[in-house]
Design goal:
This protein has helices spanning 10-22, 41-44, 71-82, 92-119, 125-145, 159-168, 171-175, 185-195, 198-205, 218-224; strands at residues 2-6, 26-30, 54-57, 66-69. By secondary structure, the chain is α+β, with helices and mostly antiparallel strands. Strands 2-1-3-4 form a 4-stranded mixed β-sheet, covered by helices on one side. Helix 4 (92-119) packs parallel to helix 6 (159-168).
């Protein structure tokens, strides 16, 4: 059984889509990051970095319980465990390259674009421009890769597509306009195709019965950005 520690944000959404695509049994364990539940000792024992998502596989290698954190690591682990969505063997080097491009580029820069554009208590035009433009540049890279292609890597739907979908799903929030993919027609076409998969709709429903905190008050800011709020001397 996969114990899936979840919050409805882009990186956990990737894992939700994988689980729905494969039908792998899982137990959902909501973690409310705006209430600081990611910092509780029980969760830090699973992910010392205090971020979502994380999983515990009760039937890991050798029948032992295994913890896995970071969405890219989880996707690779589950794909190898199930033998699903890894693409053709000859495509593996490129698969790894695109997974890490998304993990080190698309995700972090999109996250920072959201932070400085929507959350930061100060308006910093340089930071807002820097991260938004980098997010757009990453979209351009994906757009060129997808020209004349159905999927990001090879001829098959893979965890690279799943990983990119998780963040592209929030493109409107990242770039702040109603049709953010309009300048990237190949990317827009690809996203629409992935988003139309039945598993994508099911993935979005995961956790919908749980009431997560939505207020971005001081409690939430301290929970989400603890390094900005050092403990009192």
């Amino acid at each position: 059984m996969i114990r899936f520690h979840f919050h409805p944000t882009p990186n956990p959404l990737k894992v939700a889509l994988f689980l729905e695509e494969t039908g792998l049994p899982f137990e959902l364990l909501p973690v409310d990051t705006r209430r600081g539940e990611q910092h509780l000792p029980a969760f830090r024992a699973i992910n010392p970095n205090g971020k979502l998502p994380a999983i515990v596989d009760t039937d890991g290698p050798g029948g032992r319980e295994a913890r896995v954190f970071d969405s890219t690591a989880i996707l690779l682990y589950l794909a190898e465990k199930t033998g699903r969505l890894l693409g053709a063997p000859e495509d593996r080097p490129e698969l790894l390259s695109w997974l890490l491009f998304i993990a080190s580029g698309v995700g972090p820069y999109s996250g920072q674009a959201v932070h400085f554009g929507r959350v930061a208590p100060e308006t910093l035009p340089y930071a807002i421009n820097r991260y938004r433009r980098e997010a757009e540049r990453h979209y351009e890279v994906l757009d060129r890769q997808l020209a004349g292609r159905e999927f990001l890597v090879g001829a098959q739907y893979t965890i690279a597509d799943i990983s990119a979908w998780g963040w592209l799903d929030r493109a409107k929030f990242v770039l702040g306009n109603d049709d953010p993919l309009a300048p990237f027609p190949e990317l827009k076409r690809w996203f629409a195709a992935i988003d139309a998969r039945p598993a994508a709709a099911r993935a979005r429903e995961i956790g919908s019965a749980h009431v997560f905190k939505t207020e971005l008050d001081e409690e939430a800011m301290r929970a989400l950005y603890p390094s900005n709020y050092p403990p009192a001397a």
